[in-house]
Structure formats: structure tokens, C-alpha cells
Amino acid sequence: MTANSLVLASRWSNAANRRREGLRAAHAQDADVLCDLLWTYMRLKSSRGARTSELTLTHYAESVRRFLEFTGPPESPARALNQLTAEDFEVWLLDMQSAGLSASSVKRHLYGLRNMMKALVWANVLDSDPSAGVRPPSEATPAHARKRAIPVERYAELVLLPAALHRHDSIRANRDVLLIELGGSVGLRAAELVGLNVEDVDLNLAQGRVRGKGGKQRLVPLTSRIVTLTRQWLMSRSAIKAEGLLKTEALLVSLTQRNYGGRLTTKGGRDIAATYYKALGLPPEMWGLHTLRRTAGTHLYRATRDLHVVADLLGHSSVTTSAIYAKMDTEVRREALEAMERLRDSGK
């Protein structure tokens, strides 16, 4: 079923239904119905429309559920959804910060809930968005200092770990090293990694077709090393297929008992990466899959000093987005200081 047919068949198909169902859901603080309204609104009215990713919708639903927990139980909420003020949202933000959430996580939850408020305005449940003037907290530390990349020499150690830790399980070792390299060398996002299908990879042309944010597609070149790793993994994958256990066209598949042979999930990818990060001795704040993408961007900038190349390969719409990788490359600053010292020494 397409997004449009899903919307037309839903309870939100006309203005009268939207208001009636929206009022009922807001009064009962029904998380499931409110999330359904939010998803419909995002599909129809947001700038990305039907291209809105499932991951974005999942994150926004999480934000709605978190806020409903804050407002209190549906039978006696401390804050009714039709009587919210800007101060209610500001208290919520403070509550999340006091619970230990980072400023970036708090900001994401605010954006998710703001879209919920817009959906209620669209349904004519609210006259205006009470969260419109609320500002998210700012990070005390700049992004390039918080979001670290794996140093070059440690990354070289990282890609050797799958074979070392799984000497008697070549299938797992072949999949895991390919996952690491697609993230850490090609710079794919988590959703792009698990979204790859076998047909998206052309080993003869050494390139892959990647479906990125907002449904945008791009072609990425594959190095000879990644082509070799892909061939090795495809041989392992064919062994799974020969056993009748393959359930998906995905390039990377799950090897867990619960989902063996199915498409690898983003959580599964994070868990795989975290195993090797931990073995490498990286701190927990670096255990996300996006660490691989940051590593690819930082190393690529260090190798080329060209933000346009970085933006093109990583699928950024602007080099401004890629500029953080220049700041994250601590070696650039070290080299600049050493060059300054050499200049001063030459003048003595």
C-alpha cells in the first residue's frame, strides 16, 4: 500500500474526521492514535512528504510517548494537551536534561513534539503551536569536540578485529568487516548500511547505489579492498542461501537466532560495531554506528583537504555540513603547530 492510499484510507482523510478523532485522542492522550496522526501529517504536509524516513517517524513517535509520560496519566494528566503553554515545554526540556540527556537528544525530542503540535493544528484541535517559540538547549561543547572519529592507526586495528575474534566463524567475520568498511571508509549512514540490497552493488563497475536521507540516491565508488571484501561476504551469504535460511534481498543480513537470514537492523548494526569498539578500548560515547561515518569523513578530509570531495562522497547537500570533519581532524591542528615551530626554528 502506498503512502497516499494509506492516508486516504485512514481516519484523517477529511477535515471533520481529523478534528473529531484528534480531539478524542488528545483528550484521552492516546499515544497510538496521536502517533498515527503525526505520521499522516508528516507524509502529507512536511517538506519531505512521502520521502520521510521510517527512522524519523520512529524517533518522533518516541518523543511523543516521552512527552505523554511527562504530562501525566491519561485519566488525570497534570498538563492537558489542549491547554499547553510554552512554559510546559520549557519545563519538559529541563526535566530531560536533569535526567542526563544530552542537548542534542533534547533538541531532537523537541523537534519531534513540535511536529506533533503542528499535526494537532492541522487537525483543528489546536489554534496554534504552543511550542513554536521554545528554544532547544545549546551544547556547551562544540560538535567537533563532542563527536570524535577513530584515529587512523586505531581504525587499522579495528578492521582486523572481526577475523581475529571469529577465527572459526568466517561468515560472521566477513559480514562484520564489510559493515565496518562500508561505514568507516565509504561513510554510509546507519540506515544506508542496512538499506543496501545485493542488486545495489555493482562489483564490475566498483560502485554502489545508496538510498540516502529524504529518498535521495547517490552512486558511491568502491575501492578494490571493499570490492574484495564484498565478494568474500557474498560467498558467505550464498552459503546461508544454500541452506534455505536467507529471507531477504539485503546485502547485510542478521546472524542472530531470532532473525537469522533476515535484513540486518540498525540496532543490530550498532550492536555489532559496539562489540569491536569495546574490544578496541574505545569509550562508550563512541560506540554508535555514526562513529564510522565520522571516521570516514575525517580521514577523507585529511587525505584530500577538499571539502567538496567529502560532501560529494558522503551525500551532503552542502560543504558547510562537511566542514565539521575538518575541525574533527586533530592532526591538521597538530601539523599546523609543528609547521609553526619549524618556521620559528628556521628564523633563529
Topology:
Elements: H1 3-8, H2 15-28, H3 31-45, H4 54-71, H5 86-98, H6 103-122, H7 143-146, H8 152-158, H9 161-165, H10 170-184, H11 190-195, E1 201-202, E2 207-211, E3 217-221, H12 224-242, H13 266-280, H14 290-304, H15 307-314, H16 319-328, H17 330-346
Antiparallel strand pairs: 1-2, 2-3
Helix pairs in contact: 2-3, 3-4, 3-6, 4-6, 5-6, 10-12, 10-14, 14-15, 14-16, 15-16
What does this structure look like?
- It is a single chain.
- The protein has helices spanning 3-8, 15-28, 31-45, 54-71, 86-98, 103-122, 143-146, 152-158, 161-165, 170-184, 190-195, 224-242, 266-280, 290-304, 307-314, 319-328, 330-346; strands at residues 201-202, 207-211, 217-221.
- Helix 5 packs antiparallel against helix 6 and helix 14 packs across helix 16 (319-328).
- The termini are far apart.
- It folds into 2 domains: 3-122, no CATH class; 146-294, Intergrase catalytic core (hpI Integrase, Chain A, Orthogonal Bundle).
- The protein has a 3-stranded antiparallel sheet with strand order 1-2-3.
- The chain is globular, with a radius of gyration of 24 Å.
- It is mainly alpha-helical.
